[in-house]
Design brief:
Elements lengths: L3 E7 L3 E8 L2 E9 H8 L6 E2 L12 E6 L6 E2 L3 E2 L2 H13 L4 E6 L4 E7 L2 E8 L7 H11 L3 H4 L16 H11 L4 H22 L4 E5 L6 H11 L2 E4 L6 H7 L2
Parallel strand pairs: 1-5, 4-6, 5-7, 8-11, 11-12
Antiparallel strand pairs: 1-2, 2-3, 8-9, 9-10
Helix pairs in contact: 2-8, 3-5, 3-6, 6-7
């Protein structure tokens, strides 16, 4: 492979493409996953033929990774496991060798313990949308607020028991009827997300918790982790592109 690389992360909600030259990002973009598959998928083949020039990228070596439940192949690309890609991206972006990576994606959450720059252990929550970005999007929609507004609140959370994306909606509506403020309900949602992955995070905890994925843009989640686990969180400069970056670095 040359110094010019293209990394593709086929996520459950978004496809992230990044191009790096001599380990520097020179181009990047995010696409809706369904729209992307409809445009580039070939009926019955299970593969994608991507015209990178049409998307504004220079043709070059391609490494791809993707959501664990989906086995989509990109024509002409080398494919690597998503856990490997996310760890490589986090090491590249932080320079850390020992940490725990918490990746909150669109439909799953991955927790990976890294020791001496190698994967020591990992756990995933991929059976439903609870504790994922999709859950937060649904709950923010019910409250009538943006994801940015949701991410501001972690103080005085209202008690809610369900982290299910379906039943959680009913519970939040009930709390709205009871007259609780939007701020306290938003805090409750963020704490519900934390509780869903907290047992796994405690088992694989490190002194540094690196946050990646779209869910890492929620600042309240980082503050809750720091408060509850008495540890520091590390934000990435490109959290949503972390897997794609991991495809580009050796």
């Amino acid at each position: 492979m040359g110094d010019l690389m293209i990394g593709i992360d086929l996520g459950s909600r978004n496809v992230k493409i990044i191009q790096m030259e001599e380990k520097q990002i020179i181009n990047k973009n995010i696409y809706n996953t369904i729209d992307f598959y409809r445009k580039y998928g070939e009926k019955g083949s299970g593969s994608l033929k991507i015209n990178l020039q049409e998307l504004g990228f220079k043709e070059d070596d391609i490494v791809a990774t993707g959501y664990g439940k989906i086995t989509v192949q990109v024509d002409g690309a080398e494919h690597i496991p998503e856990i490997q890609a996310h760890v490589k991206g986090a090491i590249y972006q932080t320079g850390l060798e020992n940490f725990t990576l918490l990746d909150i994606g669109g439909q799953d959450t991955k927790i990976i313990q890294v020791r001496n720059s190698k994967i020591a252990d990992f756990m995933t929550n991929d059976r439903c949308a609870a504790s994922s970005g999709r859950y937060m999007e649904n709950m923010a929609h019910i409250l009538g607020i943006t994801m940015e507004e949701l991410s501001k609140h972690y103080k005085e959370p209202v008690e809610i028991s369900s982290t299910c994306a379906i039943f959680g909606e009913t519970e939040i509506i009930g709390r709205i009827v009871e007259g609780y403020s939007t701020e306290r309900l938003a805090a409750a949602i963020n704490y519900a997300v934390y509780r869903r992955f907290s047992s796994m995070l405690k088992k694989l905890k490190s002194d540094s918790i690196v946050l990646s994925g779209g869910g890492s843009l929620n600042d309240a989640i980082a503050k809750i982790i720091e408060t509850e686990l008495s540890t520091q969180t590390v934000s990435l400069s490109e959290p949503q592109f972390n897997g794609a970056i991991g495809c580009c670095v050796k």
